[in-house]
Amino acid sequence: MKRYHHLFLLLLFATNCSQYILLLLASPETQSQRDFHTLLKLKASLLGPTLSTLPNWDPAADSPAHCSFSGVTCDHQSRVISLNLTALPLRGVLPPEIALLDHLVNLTISQTNISGNLPAEISRLASLKLLNISRNNFTGAFPVIYPGGFPSLEVLDTYNNYLTGLLPANLSTLPKLWYLHLGGNFFSGEIPESYSEISGLEYLGLNGNALSGHIPDSLGKLSKLKEMYLGYYNSFEGGIPTEFGSLTSLVRLDMGGCNITGPIPVTLGQLKNFNILFLQMNHLTGPIPATLGLLLYLEALDFSSNELTGEIPATFSQMKQLKLFHLFNNHLQGNVPQFIGELPYLEILQIWENNFTGELPESLGSNRRLIKLDVATNNLTGLVPPNLCASGQLEVLVLMENGFFGPIPENLGRCNSLCHVRMGKNFLNGTVPPGLFNLSRADMLELNDNFLSGKLPPIINGDRLETLSLSNNQITGRIPPSMGNLLALLTLSFDQNRLSGSIPSDIGKLNHLSKLNLSGNSLSGEIPSELGGCGSMSLIDLSRNNLTGVIPDEIASLKILSTLNLSRNHISGEIPKEFTQMTSLTTLDLSFNNLYGEVPRQGQFLVFNENSFAGNPGLCGTPSHNASCVARAGANANSGERDPLCGASAKPFFLCMGSFIGILIILS
Ligand SMILES: *[C@@H]1O[C@H](CO)[C@@H](O)[C@H](O)[C@H]1NC(C)=O
Ligand SMILES: *[C@@H]1O[C@H](CO)[C@@H](O)[C@H](O)[C@H]1NC(C)=O
Ligand SMILES: *[C@@H]1O[C@H](CO)[C@@H](O)[C@H](O)[C@H]1NC(C)=O
Ligand SMILES: *[C@@H]1O[C@H](CO)[C@@H](O)[C@H](O)[C@H]1NC(C)=O
Ligand SMILES: *[C@@H]1O[C@H](CO)[C@@H](O)[C@H](O)[C@H]1NC(C)=O
Ligand SMILES: *[C@@H]1O[C@H](CO)[C@@H](O)[C@H](O)[C@H]1NC(C)=O
Ligand SMILES: *[C@@H]1O[C@H](CO)[C@@H](O)[C@H](O)[C@H]1NC(C)=O
Ligand SMILES: *[C@@H]1O[C@H](CO)[C@@H](O)[C@H](O)[C@H]1NC(C)=O
Ligand SMILES: *[C@@H]1O[C@H](CO)[C@@H](O)[C@H](O)[C@H]1NC(C)=O
Ligand SMILES: *[C@@H]1O[C@H](CO)[C@@H](O)[C@H](O)[C@H]1NC(C)=O
Ligand SMILES: *[C@@H]1O[C@H](CO)[C@@H](O)[C@H](O)[C@H]1NC(C)=O
Ligand SMILES: *[C@@H]1O[C@H](CO)[C@@H](O)[C@H](O)[C@H]1NC(C)=O
C-alpha cells in the first residue's frame, strides 16, 4: 500500500486539484471522495465533440454522486470497482490519474476516439483484472510495466488501436494473465520467446500487426492455450512450428495471410479439440497431412491460396462436423471424394482453381445445408448433382470452367435463394430451366460458353440481376420484352446464339445497363431508338445480325458510350451527324452494312480509320471510299434520296473531292 500512497503524492504535483489533500486521510469516505474527484478529472480530460460529453456524470447528484455516473460501478464503500466507457463520443487522452481508482477491477474503454499514450501508471492498479482498451485511437508504445505491476491482471485487450514499437516484453511476470489480445495494432519485431512462459494463457491474439521473424517454437509450451491468432499483416519467416502439436487445448488457430512457408505439420493432427483451423493465404507446400482427419470436431478448415499438392486425404471422411471447407487456389488434384457429399453439416465448399478431376459426388447438397458451392476452374466432369439446392438456401453456385455436361437440373429453377450462378465454360446442354430467369435475389446469372438450347421464357424477372450472360450457346427464339423488368442490369450478353426476331424496345428502360452484346445472332428489324434512353451504356455490340433500318439519332445521346459495333448487318441510311459530338466514343465499327452518304470528318470522327466504315459501298468521304463513291455513283442514284452529296451527279463528286482535299490539308 505504501507504494501507492507515494504515487498519489507524486500526482499532487501534477495536478492542481486541492481536493487531493483529502486523500492523505485514509477513511473509506475520503477514499470514495477521491474516486469522485478522479472521475471528474477523467471527464475533463475526455473532451468530447460537444461540452455535453458524459452528461449524466453530474457532480451535484445525491452523494455518493459518482456511483450514479453511467458506466461506473461502486462497491458497498462507494469505491469504484468497474468503469465501462463503451461506444461513447469521447476524445482527448486518458490521464495518469486513472491510477488513483485503486479499487478498480474492470476497466473497459472501448469504441471511442480517445487517443494519446496509455499512461504507464495504469500498471499500478493492484486490483485490476480486466483492462479492455479495444477499438480506440491509442498511440505510442505499450507502456513499461512497473516492477510488480498489474499483479491481478487476467484480461488485456488492446485490439484495434495504433500502438507501435515492440510487443510488451514483461507479460510473463503477470501471474494471472489468461487473455491477451494485442491484435490490430502496429506492433513490430518478433514475438518474444517469453510469451511461452505465460503459462496460464488461454487466448493469444497477435493478428493484424507488423510482426516478423520466426514464430517461436516454444509457444508450443502454452498447454492451456485455446485460441491463437497470428495472421494478417504480420509477415513471418519460416513455417508453422511442429511444436504446435503440443498445444493440446487448442480449439482455434488462425495463421492466415502471414507469409508462412513449408509444410503443414503432421503433428497438428494431435490437436483433437480443433474447431477452426485457418492457414489460408500463405506459401504452404506439400500435401495435406492425412493425420488431420483425426480432427473430429473441426468445423471450419481454410487452406486456400497456398501451394499445396496431392489429394484430399481419405481420412477426412471422419470429420463429420465440417461446415466450411476451403481448398481453393492450390495445386491439388484427384477426385472430390464421395464422402464430401455425405458430410452432414457441410455449408460451404470452395475448391476452385485446382486440378480436381472426376465427377462431383452425386449426393452433394443432399444434407440440406449447402449455402455456397464454388468448384470453378478444375477439370471436373459428369452431370451437375441433382440436389444442390435441397437446403433451399443455396446462394452461390459456381461450376464454371470445368467439363460438366448434360442438363442444368430443373429444380435449380426453383432455388429462390440463389444469388450468384456461374456455370459458364462447360458442356452443358438442354434447355435452361425457366425459373433461373425469375430469381428474385440473383445478381449474376452466367451460363455462357455451353451448348444450351431452347427458347428464353416469356417471363423474365429479377430486381437485383446485374449480369446476365448466355453468350455462345444455341438459344433460339426471340428476346422477350420482359427483359425490361431487369432494372438493375449492368451487363447483358446474348451474343453468339441463334436468337431471331427484333430487339425489344423495352431494353431502353434499363437505366443502369452498361454493356449490351447481342452480336452473332439472327436478329432482324430495326435498332430500337429507345436504346438512346440507356444513359449508362458504354458498349453496344449488335454486329453480325440481320438488322435493317437506319442508325437511330438517339444513340448519339449516350454520353459515355465508348464502343459501338453495328458491323455486318443490313443497316442503311446515313451516319447521324450528331455522332461527331460523341466524345467518349473510341471504337466505332459500322463496316459491312448498306450505309451511304458522307462519312463525317469532324469531331470524334478524326479518331476512326477507314476500317470502321469498310464494306459500305454507298459511303464516301474517306480516302479509299472516295474512289468507290465515284465508281458506284450510278448504282447509288436510285437510293439517293437521303444521299445528296455523293450521288450520281458531278457536283456531289466535286464536293466529295473537296472534302477529301480539305482533309489532306488538315493532315498536312
Ligand atoms: C468484471 O467483468 C467480468 C467479466 O467481464 C465480470 O464477470 C465481473 O463481474 C466484472 N466485475 C466487476 C467488479 O464489475
Ligand atoms: C460495457 O458497456 C457496454 C454497452 O454500454 C456493454 O455492451 C458491455 O457488455 C459492457 N462491458 C462490461 C465489461 O461490462
Ligand atoms: C470517432 O470519430 C469519427 C470521426 O472522427 C466519427 O465518425 C466516429 O463516430 C467517432 N466515434 C465515436 C464513438 O464517437
Ligand atoms: C480515430 O481513428 C479513426 C479511424 O482511423 C478516425 O476515423 C478518427 O478520426 C480518429 N479519431 C481521432 C480523434 O483522431
Ligand atoms: C472489450 O470490449 C469490447 C466492447 O465492449 C468487447 O467487444 C470485447 O469483447 C471486450 N473484450 C474482452 C476481452 O472482453
Ligand atoms: C521489463 O522489460 C525490460 C526490458 O525488456 C527490462 O529492462 C525490465 O527489467 C523488465 N521488467 C520486469 C519487471 O521484468
Ligand atoms: C516471407 O517468407 C520468406 C521465406 O521465409 C522470406 O524470405 C521473406 O523475407 C518473407 N517476407 C517478408 C515480407 O517477411
Ligand atoms: C494443373 O495441372 C497442369 C498440368 O499438370 C498444370 O500445368 C497446371 O499448372 C495445374 N494447375 C493448377 C491450378 O495446379
Ligand atoms: C486439366 O485440363 C486442362 C485443359 O483441358 C489441361 O491442360 C490440364 O492438363 C488438365 N489437368 C489435369 C490434371 O488433368
Ligand atoms: C446432351 O448431350 C448428351 C451427350 O453429351 C446427349 O446424349 C444428349 O442428347 C444431349 N441433350 C440435348 C438436349 O441436346
Ligand atoms: C416468379 O417468381 C415469383 C416469386 O418467386 C413467383 O411467384 C412466380 O410464380 C414466378 N413466375 C414464373 C413465371 O415462374
Ligand atoms: C438474314 O436473313 C436472311 C433472309 O432473310 C437469311 O438468309 C440469312 O441467313 C440471315 N442472316 C443471318 C446472319 O441471320
From TrEMBL:
InterPro entries: Leu-rich_rpt, Leu-rich_rpt_typical-subtyp, LRR_dom_sf, LRR_N_plant-typ, LRRC69/RLP
The entry's keywords: ATP-binding, Cell membrane, Glycoprotein, Kinase, Leucine-rich repeat, Membrane, Nucleotide-binding, Repeat, Serine/threonine-protein kinase, Signal, Transferase, Transmembrane, Transmembrane helix
Enzyme class, broadest EC rank: transferase
Domain of life: Eukaryota
GO biological process terms, semicolon-separated: defense response; post-embryonic development; response to other organism
Signal peptide positions on this chain: 1-32
Subcellular location: Cell membrane
Predominant place of localization: membrane
GO molecular function, one term: ATP binding
Record keyword Magnesium present: no
Protein name according to UniProt: non-specific serine/threonine protein kinase
Biological source species: Rhynchospora tenuis
